[in-house]
């Protein structure tokens, strides 16, 4: 499940903006953005404590962010032939994901200071596409897919709302999130039954990724899946990752980007 709204700038040097909503079983233990993986120094993420992986991962110094959304798996692989998806965002901000991921299907939004890509893995084929400038929505199908009710209903509203100037750039988008709760069938904040589990929106993250650095803010609703005004204050004060170090011209991060591009040879 989950929802990502992303604005890719048309002008070079302008930051990418991301609003990501995490949907999960409220009983499944997790932790907010932090350095939970000592074997991956410098990497921060929102950790799933049950499987040990991440939903969202960040390398602040490399100005790279990745966020994972579930997608239908079309393969006939058995459960003992796949592993948890949680390593995918961590790999994405590191050395890159495998060409054939050993997981169930997913959508992966990859963002760096130069733009954004969507990796779609359905268990049979991986496709990596660069997101064009503009505002997009991603859920569990293709980018801007009108077959997803919340995208069909609210993508135009996110585009019309635009971004506010300054640090609270996400406020117009958060207004759309609040408005969307008037229609539970198409709400961005969700409470859905899926495969015998009730999945609810547990976390909202707002991220800025650009040449000058990366910033991630996070806030949780008091009641999962429901709007409350505390989300505004939470995002205003919930800064959890910030970097403004000069980027190296040729580092392991740029090599990793090349690795990711090579690993998606079928993507266009």
Order of helices and strands: EEEEEEHEEEEHHEEEHEH
Say how many strands there are.
14
What's the number of structural domains? 1
Mean pLDDT: 90
Please summarize the sheet with the most strands: 7 strands, antiparallel
* Contiguous helical run count: 5
- The percent of residues in helical segments reads 10-25%
CATH topology: Penicillin V Acylase, Chain A
Question: What low-confidence regions span 5 or more consecutive residues with pLDDT below 50?
Answer: 247-268
CATH architecture label: 4-Layer Sandwich
Reading off the top of the CATH hierarchy, the class is best stated as Alpha Beta
Into which percentage range does the β-strand content fall?
25-35%
Q: Rg, please? A: 17 Å
């Amino acid at each position: 499940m989950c929802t990502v709204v992303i604005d890719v700038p048309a002008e070079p040097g302008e930051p990418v903006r991301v609003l990501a909503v995490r949907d999960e079983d409220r009983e499944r233990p997790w932790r907010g953005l932090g350095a939970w993986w000592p074997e991956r120094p410098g990497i921060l993420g929102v950790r799933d404590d049950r499987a040990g992986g991440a939903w969202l991962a960040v390398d602040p110094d490399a100005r790279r962010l990745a966020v994972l959304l579930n997608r239908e798996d079309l393969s006939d692989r058995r459960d003992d032939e796949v592993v948890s998806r949680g390593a995918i965002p961590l790999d994405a901000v590191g050395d890159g994901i495998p060409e054939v991921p050993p997981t169930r299907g997913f959508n992966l939004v990859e963002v760096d200071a130069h733009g954004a890509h969507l990796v779609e893995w359905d268990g049979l084929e991986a496709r990596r596409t660069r997101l064009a400038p503009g505002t997009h929505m991603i859920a569990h199908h293709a980018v801007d897919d009108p077959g997803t009710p919340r995208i069909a209903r609210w993508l135009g509203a996110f585009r019309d709302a635009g971004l506010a100037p300054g640090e609270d750039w996400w406020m117009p988008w958060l207004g759309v999130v609040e408005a969307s709760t008037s229609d539970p069938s198409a709400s961005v904040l969700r409470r859905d039954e899926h495969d015998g589990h009730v999945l609810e929106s547990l976390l909202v993250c707002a991220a800025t990724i650009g040449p000058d650095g990366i910033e991630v803010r996070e806030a949780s609703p008091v009641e999962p899946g429901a709007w409350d005004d505390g989300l505004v204050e939470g995002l205003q004060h919930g800064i959890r990752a910030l970097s403004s170090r000069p980027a190296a011209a040729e580092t392991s991060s740029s090599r990793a980007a090349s690795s990711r591009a090579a690993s998606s040879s079928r993507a266009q």
